[in-house]
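Subject: complex prediction, re-run

Hi both,

The earlier run crashed halfway through, so I resubmitted it with identical inputs.
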Amino acid sequence: MGNRNSVASPASGQTRGSANPGSPAALDASKLSSTLAKTLKPLQPIETLRFGQTFSDHMIVATYDPELGWSAPEVKPYGPITLDPQCSCFQYGGNVFEGMKAYLGPDGKARLFRPDMNMRRMEKSCARLALPPIDGDVVLELIKHLVNVEKRWIPKESGYSLYIRPTVIATRPGLGVTASDHAMLYILASPTGPYFARPVSLLAVSENVRAWPGGTGGHKVAGNYSPGFLPQRAAAEKGYDQILWLFGDDRRVTEAGAMNFFVVVKRDDEDGVDLITAPLDGTILPGVTRASCLALAGDPEFHQEISMRLHPQEMVYTMSDLAKWSSEGKLLEALAIGTAVIVGPCNRIGFEGKDIVIPGDGMGPVGTAIRKKILDIQEGRTEWKGWGVVCA
Amino acid sequence: MGNRNSVASPASGQTRGSANPGSPAALDASKLSSTLAKTLKPLQPIETLRFGQTFSDHMIVATYDPELGWSAPEVKPYGPITLDPQCSCFQYGGNVFEGMKAYLGPDGKARLFRPDMNMRRMEKSCARLALPPIDGDVVLELIKHLVNVEKRWIPKESGYSLYIRPTVIATRPGLGVTASDHAMLYILASPTGPYFARPVSLLAVSENVRAWPGGTGGHKVAGNYSPGFLPQRAAAEKGYDQILWLFGDDRRVTEAGAMNFFVVVKRDDEDGVDLITAPLDGTILPGVTRASCLALAGDPEFHQEISMRLHPQEMVYTMSDLAKWSSEGKLLEALAIGTAVIVGPCNRIGFEGKDIVIPGDGMGPVGTAIRKKILDIQEGRTEWKGWGVVCA
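This time it finished cleanly. Structure:
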């Protein structure tokens, strides 16, 4: 899988994983070929990095054809892709993606954080949009390979990482309104720093709705995101950073921007605090960081480590609940949770003309402890239940 | 706008509509340049045409840059487009499209059907996804130009047309989850015949939801379509052609596949029939054919022409209503309505293990009369309230 030429046949223009015409080839990492960039880009000073703006030298690409199956994946110089304008990805959506970060540990090894969870989610996202089947374990092999090829792009500084963006797009040519039986997988790598350093303010919105039961809000599909841009712009004009998405007549709290959302609430029984987030009812993205926060919050070993009692609560809660907890002094922290942000503070929530102000600018001991723990695992300073996965 | 070379500057690679750097240029049809195909494709026998599979020789393309605005539009040979894989159109959706048909009249002129309605909807779709602003009147000028360039592609046979697909895609480079300040407009042309000749069967589905209030179901955006592919596949496995999308606990009837849906119901007062469809509450695409059916149904001049009394009804109605009307013998016709299909029959609706069977295979005198009227207007055999617009 070094710097050798692609063995693509000139006739087909593609190497296929199988010569059997009756059985579409599965994605096969052992078939990976590499065409490395002739000139490598200079690394960018980390203080000038902005999320998703700088890309490494290479990407990995594979394509799916309904008869041939998956092509042999290829490492190639990062660059444009060429597609027919009739393709399903432009006309009918049908694109899915994942977000992951590779960190450099003190041992000099590159690590991913619970990548198996991203891969299972990617498989489900593809299935939800009726895209061709894809084996996440093979995608993970390809990701690890790309991380190693691009290791010089992983910043050494804490909080910085190489953000990995596996993407599957629907490439069926034709305007018929039907599932795409063609696809392209590509994996991009982008060095990145802390997503936002300052606390974010949220505007709670119910006139626009991010997701609905029976829709695709529980999957990581491209079409979930663009409908949020207009409400986001309106929120910015009112002085808020992000939307807090509500759902239903009872104004249930769901997600914050493109992130999961947690609140830390003091318990009536004085037995520590509740870490509350909305349940996975199909309107909530099953975030990897979300699942990790809940797992840590329910883990006695972690409680001992941080000398706090946490109670993970996946439950329906509403703006009325937030307002009540706030007025009673029980609302202690408000946290935006996601791969890019990890754990970030939310300092106020605008709703019906008033602001719910979160003490301590949103982040307190719970958010701080969870963030530190996850970053320690991600950056390889601590071993924890196999969550940090070395790109060997 | 003939066959002259583009005057694009080699430095920028693009001709811009304005030299003023402070004011992004508006889309300007008078700046259109043409690079015509050196060899024209042979026309395909019409009996082999399948919807959206064959494309004409040329397309029109223009791009938007936040500083420069819209580039000078260009007629160029139909062919692939090249984009950065980080583009918003792949990562976050943000694509919109329109569907229109150009017909050849007995006077040899090419006509569009109420294209102003498509253009207003396209402007709204772009605004809903926070895409750069686009002037639909200018897009219409470009469409008319393309139709005339591709006139030989319009089949002369009744029911056949040149399907026009204006598309706007989000081309902002970068993974930041924010509105795309870059875009590409392209207009494709595809000769097409009757969308489906035989009646379609529908499976009523409530476990998947096409659209919801506060979402994007009332706009023509790419991301509305791919979430329907999996339910559609499941329906096909059960022996149904398309989904009848329901909404809410009361199982309201909304749309059929990617089409509007109408039923013809006998009135209690014996004063003709009701033509019933769901109201535009944000979950229903405001179809051009839908609006035209409703307008005809409410027009005394049309009533006189067809010697029938019709009452257009935009109202909430449920599967219980359908079942009741069916059992009472009042459910006379069930019609799928859209640009591609025009007016097509639905012969049965599966729901909770039973079929509601529509008499006459779905289509009766009302659907037949409306279909004939619309096709007469589209094909230029009759003049009606300015609905047929000649591509002059």
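Confidence is low (pLDDT under 50) at residues 1-19 of chain B.

- K.
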